[in-house]
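Support reply, case 0932

Customer input (verbatim):
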Amino acid sequence: MINKIKSGILNGVQGYLIEVEVDISKGLPYFNVVGLAGTQVKESKERVRSAISNSGYKFPLSRIVVNLSPADMRKDGSYLDLAICMGILKEKINEEEDFFNETAFLGELSLDGQIKSMKGIISIAISFSQMELKNLFIPYDNYMECSELSNINIIPVKSVRDCINILKMDKVSRELYIKERIEKIVEKSGINKQGEEEEKDLLEDDFYFIKGNKIAKRCAEISVAGGHNFLMIGPPGTGKTMIAKAMKNILPTPSKDESLDITRIYSTVGKLYDGNGLIKKRPFRSPHHSSTLTSIIGGGVNASLGEVTLAHNGILFLDELPEFGRKLIDSLRQPIEDGQVNISRLNRSVTYPANFIMLATMNPCPCGYFNSEKTCVCRASDIDRYRAKLSGPILDRIDIFCEVSEINFNEFNEDKDKRLSSKEIKKHVELAKDIQELRFKEKDIYNNSQMSPKDVFIYCNLSDEAEETSKYIYDKYKLSNRSYIRLLKISRTIADLDNRKEIKEKDIMEAFSYRRAYYKYFYSKE
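Our regenerated output:
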């Protein structure tokens, strides 16, 4: 007798369908798992045996062989426990074979038969929702993260006995029982109360409290609105870090697809707490400059994800960028350009999403006071060596360069009515984001920074004056193709913030003005 049950495993942040074949035949008691099973999967034999016995069922004293198909794919993790258990106990369930053909089971078993919550359940559930599966049994505590998935019925279960009891019900009773259970879970989580509390007018890191630096604030707004990489250069104490931290409060609300991407990443690394639904806030990651290459990019023996993936659809803030070291900084080139990072190890190859805004700050020299009112004590060679940590290819991938200067007393005491709060700036950003969503509704991109060169020439409609100016800038400053494309993308975002379809000359000029700091600190004419 062979019972077939569908389940899944996780590789990176992608879920894969696994068919669990359980053969129960006469012979001496024997229990084995085959099909390129990892250590955790092989250990499932003892968990399944104890869970069945402690749930009040009799474990078959027969020859049991479990095959995991496809056999050429390595299986790791304890996601298959529940499916193996259901394959052994299938005789106790009066369900037609068609039901099992469109149903999958995920969950780790404890020795007493309880089904434990797991990392990365939503990633597998998302993959299954795109297949022909109709039902998915998952751990009870993982329900909220999967609650907004469509095209598949999510059935939360607490234990082996609970799962069997649900399967024994007729279709109408089962649907009613599951509906009542889900309502209780949602009520307990309080997710339906989200958004009821009034948002504070002024936040802890609010642009309203940042005096002066109008150009830097404008750059921050453009960066967030279009997803553009942003570098601030200036002496210590001028507000670079303060502006960077305030940017997390003007990030636009993610779309449902973006929320699913963020949630599946944080679920995979176990940073999603039980009872939480979809993450509806963009991430802001700020690793220390002593972080290793593996912790930033990802890798290690298990090809783990890094900070660039945790910052997906959000901001990766690198404070004091040159302190990270040239090797680590150069390793950001591929994620910035491709929006993903490829990690290959001996036993596996994984692709992680890494579409983020690179936000960075730096001093103009090692002591920090080059070209400021205070005296710089650095030698010319030290300054050159310090700035050389940022290679040409990295600088070419930065869209906006902004010099943040020391503010004078009049700027410090500017009229508070002239300062915009983060809440007001976010409204402008949301408007630009809505325009971009409408523009790219037929494409698999979300903002202007993700446009391909082909998209740029389709969607960046320049006026005659703007076209002349852009040609003049391209020829005079010998821009690379990448720099010119990025210039047009920024101009597109500036026009979006003004709710205009056509890019005007002033948009090109403003976008190019945000390269002034580049020419001042990094550009040397041969």
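We compared this against your earlier run and they match. Two observations from our side: The first helix runs from residue 39 to 54. The chain is about 40% helix and 15% strand. Please reopen the case if you see a mismatch on your end.
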